[in-house]
Amino acid sequence: MEKMDEPVLPSVATSPVQPYSEHIQTKQKPPLSPTKPSISKSSPNFLVSHNPMDRLSDTSPSLKPVLRRNSRPDSFNFNYRVGDNSKPIASTGSSPYSDSEHGGLSVKSSEASISTLLQHTNRTPSPFSPILNRESLVAVGSPSLGATISNRFSRFETLASLMYDTEVSAVRSTDTRTPLTHRRLKSFVHDCSIPLPGLSRSSRVGVLLPEGPELAVCLVALLSHCCVVPMNSHLTAREVAAELAQLRADAVVLNAVDHNEELVRILSATGVTTMFLFPDTLHCGLFTLSLSSISEGGVYDLISITSGTRNRSTASKKRQSSLISFMMGDTASTTTTHSTHEYTDPEDTVMILRTSGTSGSKKTVPYTLRTLVVGAKCVAESWGLSPHDVNLNMMPLYHVGGIVRNLLAPILSGGTVIITPGFDAVAFWEILQNHSPTWYYAVPTMHMAILEEGVEVMKKGHKLGDGLRTSIRMIANAGGGLPHSLALQLRTVFQGSTVLPSYGMTECMPIATPPLHYNLEKPGTSGVSVGPEIAIMDTNNVALSAGSFGRIMVRGKPVFGGYENDDDANARAFTPDGFFDTGDMGYLDEDGYLFITGRSKEVINRGGEIISPVEIEDAVLSHPRVMNVIAFSVPHSVLQETVGIVIVARDASSRVGLLEIQRHVSSILHPTKWPQFIVYMSEVPKNQTNKPLRIKLAERLALEEQSDSTPINQRHMEAECPPKGTPISVKIKCQPVSSVNVEKLGKMLCLMPSTREARIFSFQTGEMTAFVAGKHGLSKEDVHDFLLERVHDYEIPQDIIVVDRIPKDSNGTISFEKCKKIYMEKREEDLSDTERALVDLFAKVLGLGRRPKKSDDFFELGGGSLTAGKVTALIRNKFGVRLAPMVIFQYRSAEKLSVALVEALQVDREKPGTNGKSFAFDGKTKSENPVSLKAAYSQLLPMLMIRPLRSIALWLTFAHILSFIHLTLFFEFNDRGTVRTSLIIIIQLIIAGAITGLIFQVLSPIVCLIAKWTLIGRYKAGEYPLWGSAYLRWWLVDQVLLQFDSGVFGWSNITRIAFWKLMGADIAWDFKFDKNLLIREFDLIKIEENCIVVDSLMRPFTMEPGLMVLKPIVIERNSILNMKSSIAPGSVIKANTVLPPMSSSYDASTESSEKYRIFAGTGPDPNIFILLLFGYPFIAIFNALCLIPWACMVYWMVQFPFFGSPNDGTYLFLSNFGQLVLHFRNPRRIGIHILASLAHQLIAPFLRVALLILVKRCVIGKFTPGEKRRSQVQLLRHWIMSTLVDSGNLGGVYELLGRHYEGISIIYRALGAKVGKRVYWPGTPMNFYEFDLIDVGDDVVFGSRSKFVFSDTIETRRIQVQAGAMVADRCVILPGAVVGKNAMIGSGSLLSKNGFYPPGSTWIGSKGGDAILWDAGNPEVAEQEPTLRPFGKAFYLKEANFKVFSQGFVFAYSAAFETFSTILWSFPLLVAITLSGSYYDIALSKTSEAEAQGHLHFALGYLFTYYWAVAISLTIPIIGKRFVTRRLTPGSYDWDMSDYCQRWQVAITMQKISSDLVNDLRGSAFIVSYFRAMGCSIGERVCLYPTGGDPMMTEPDLVSIGDHTVIDKASIVAHINSKGKFALNELQIGSFCVLRSDARLLSGAEMCDNSRLMERTLVLGGDTVESGKVMQGWPANDHIYD
């Protein structure tokens, strides 16, 4: 090995985090194939350092010593405390610090510095001599320390070549054996021979040895020749065998003295070679290895090996000896026969470890030799390790921390490691005294045990001296966060030692540690980078700025290269540019210090706030009665998670209670971080490496969901701590703490000095009151302190009343009633008005049956963060002043809170006015009477006149056109009954229908134009009374537009623009939009050139209580409004504005960005000539084929001619219309007509789906992801498919199959979608047609009105929704989005392009073009959780406590209601024909008068029957509500627990009959009456849905609406379907409230009087919109109303 002139210079540098946004796509999901991280100097992310020192290898020539000044305040200094441990380094041999001229260097001063060593020249160099360029390491873009070390040692050959050749001890033991020097260790490793046939560098050898020096040396030796597999010696035989089999081990090393014979037999049976290790009795660490076999008698024999029994790759020589010694030749007690092996090179895999599996699944981590060397050297340089340093190792050497930090780092820095038999706190102090270690590295539980034992040792006096030695240079922490309080204790006990937290993991060791001058000035930090690059990234894999919380990512050496044989894990773990996701969460501060807030699997997500368990533990540990603690998440009914703690009490007989813990941490932690639940254990759960196990702890303990109403005495549990290393899948027995023994407690009080008598009462449920009679001067504090030392905190009574004598009855027994009277008198107190109001509020919110004292603690009464929020809301209502909920945490009693409230009231009075104004109705009635004759008549016209007269006109037109065609086209009387004639008649019918439709397409826009310009003229901005003349005229025009629409003007975008212009709109001709755009109030719309609007709501109409309000909308040039955007009346969208999807005009100034232009995909459509030549004909043929079921019935009908022949008597006396009516009224023909209608409604939809599948497979083909292609062929494919799929209703099959069930999945699969099992499809179909691009897992739940977007203007991407996930209503999922397993996408969420939404996470709404993270969840846990939902259990597995409808039954009742509806709405026509035919039977005349009479009879018959059909249609949903769903009550109605859901589906099917009719009544008094009949409580002059509902209320009997409230196209839904869990909650809307279009009130929400929701606003379940508040946003936020 070539050596260099320069000595070791301990050094470290941080690696600045560089932004990698240019290389990471937004919310990049894990790669689909494993991506091995690579670090290349050519990479733009990894800038090259130009210091020539950085390019040195171990073969570099001698260099002059160079010192460089650190440029950062956090750089390491290299002074370290040696104390009185220093001793001369031997001058013999070749030591890195030997001096040939001076005969050695003795370091004696306690303050000696490494820099003094640099004054000595000509010393023997270390292989790590090159000096790091610290300036380059801290400069922007510089390589990490790990990369620098890796580059400097890019050409080392073997592990032995890096080892020191000195007489300094390398390995020590705690017994009397001679230490193993570096020289002897190096020679041992270099010259060893392994008795394994066919050994190669890739051979895998397990090491299962007890902790000790032999284990350490064996690991180092095997690393030099093969791949070592360290094993936990505490595993059972079968666990060891399974691990070795999974890791494909060729052999295993066992202890010859003490081994498991069962294991040897199992391994022999599995073909794993066993080698026995015989320790040397003189030198610690040296040993002999021997092969073994089992003879037939079961006796172990040492055998001669001549050839391998396995097929291994390569070996230098085969073994020839019968007993091969694995020892140094100069020290062996036996003759050694050497066999030369290949040495492992830097890129060989030399070690295999398994991850700890705390998340439930272990992964295999391979290490190359270079990775281990770089990691060890990073540790050595960052901790300033030198040949002087002596490490005390009590950490296990089957974990990467112990191997790299405690074994390799000391050896490769020329220092010493003391290897102990394992952790022993007593032995620690003895070793500290006798072996003078300078540093140790341990986990927090070991530190605490050491401190505890130290206290005992100091009390007793150390047996080896008068005093106890506590001087040690450095203490390093591992395996978990280092609580600040613990760090302070360590530094105090160990006389000012440097206490360093550290951070590393199995996949990368090390990652971070603070500089050596660290003085605990940054509590909670893990330090600065000491190896890889560190970045904090969001879920998009975009690097975040300093102080931003996110995922901790590392890249570069010593990060491992990827999990073995686990492509999926690698794909999830690594980003495309090589960053590895540690699974931890945290942030980097401005100085580059890393703060870990917890494992992403361990953090507590309290209502969206991420809480670090380490922070909680640090605070709780500072309580003097707590010995140990871990914090974990406990499920919460509203917050999802809250804080729980496991406490190990110092005194098991006097446990600290939850209230005392909360009091203690109140000055340290924010109130949201206070523990809310305690579990008492004798020790905290740990894994084999002593890491505390927080993951799944609540699940293991089987803790129930908590709520703020859970009594405080029910939040104390006790459990048995499982043995160390127990898998997290094993449950932990847990139970409530023992109930208070009242009699025992009373007797204990009687034992108190100065106490004569005591008795415990319970005057309030769940509370205890102690009456204590004692001597004068006895106080309740004395009683409390007495009990505190003898019972658990939670057993101490809530009230202690000290009296002279406990009242008794006349018979001498203690009087309960008299004691209660005293108790009540004690509670009476003088209260100010404010205090009285506050205690009443406390009682109301907490549901107390009594008035609490003004001094009572709100939280001790059972309050929590949610109830604190309710109190502040009530305070705002009562006092008109806004207090933050956190004020309750500061002023916890009514007495203290009243002081804060009075001060706030005074400040509020002194505030100047604001520009905005609060929303409050002035109390004056502004609307007119909704049931006046004028209003009632006007608002009945659409349903009772316009709709039926339109139908009458359509049928009469059709009849006359058919008559005309009969006389002029393709008809011969003498061919009746032939196939040719029948087909001709069918053609005549189709032509007549087409001409009729065309006529009405032409007439419809004319009717609209006439109605608009005659009834209104021009729309004018202003406020108009509801149900006044202006409103009624507006309403009538809107109904005309609803029923007639734009007709032929709707055939293309350019014609629609023409229609809107004719109606008065000011719209540029180049305006682009999609077919879903609805424009009304035309004169108030202005859209300038080059604008795009996609599927957005844009109406100048809105309402205030009693008023219709019209305000203009202006969209200036070059603006884009993306899908599902809402534009409020009065908005002006400035030029060049680009709104993201799912936004509103209120966001225009904050969310607009050019990047959203790519989502405005409104086309283009194919060329018009392509459409005329191919598109339209194809659609026409397709639609004609869909008419086959109807045509078959008509074919049967036309066998009975519609018209008479010249031979018929009636032919001479009746017109063609009369003949048509007369012949059609025949009962047989009427029956066939009904059958034809049913065939069209029930059979044709399935034919349409079959044809659609055929077209998709044979004509359209697959849609594939990739760059957006715009060839005419591709455009035609998309146009045809989108036209055929239309709204996604599948021609009616969607509803016939029941919407939610497997039938829909089957169809989607046939169309190319990848759909799992038990998918719950939405009630309203999702409108998409690129079925090949959707991947839906098992048990996914979809909400209604969501939109999948597979393409933008750039590319097409696949969308994936993994198993168990839920996509709620009104979501927009953009191309490439991936919804993780069991993730929850809440209402109105926008999933960004290529966004990855991790398993178990919860998202809602949108902000800035992406969903808002509501709960990060626990991805690892979510991956393991089952996905089966109540819907799947009930409908598919039939695991329900009621009779579950089958798919066949669902189709049957759907078809039955469709049949009923078809027949019902056929009757007006049939009765009209029958009545008219009866007239012609009598009249027999062709005169115009007779013709008019015939038409009149037709119209009267139609109207009469139509009115009856209307009455029946409106009555059926009411009947269904009363007898099918019945009166609803709030509660849980899961599919597998209640039959309500399937009854609800039946009721919805019944309501379909009247849906169009209810729409005709919107905005009138009649729709209010309809919903009252459905059970809704509605006040006076309420205006409902004047522009329609989306949907209208579905559970009206759970909705309450006050007087004068106005509700536009808003969603009022009282049910919530969360991942298949179905619940009903009441919705309360006060008086004078406003819900504008696109507002949504979730189940359980409440609106107080005079509150309003603006456009696109979501109020979450359980939230209250206070009186006078204006809310906007999704989710809602305060909004200033101008």
TrEMBL record:
BP terms from Gene Ontology: fatty acid metabolic process
InterPro entries documented for this protein: ACP-like_sf, AMP-bd_C, AMP-bd_C_sf, AMP-dep_synth/lig_dom, ANL_N_sf, PKS_PP-bd, PP-bd_ACP, Trimer_LpxA-like_sf
Family matches, as Gene3D superfamilies: 3.30.300.30, ACP-like, Hexapeptide repeat proteins, N-terminal domain of ligase-like
Any single Pfam family the record assigns to this protein: AMP-binding_C
Record field: compositional bias (Low complexity): 35-44
Ranges annotated as biased composition (Polar residues): 88-98
Entry keyword annotation includes Cytoplasm: no
UniProt-recorded Gene Ontology molecular function terms: medium-chain fatty acid-CoA ligase activity; phosphopantetheine binding
Keywords recorded for this protein, A-Z: Membrane, Phosphopantetheine, Phosphoprotein, Transmembrane, Transmembrane helix
UniProt key word Zinc: no
Full protein name: Carrier domain-containing protein
UniProt source species: Chytriomyces confervae
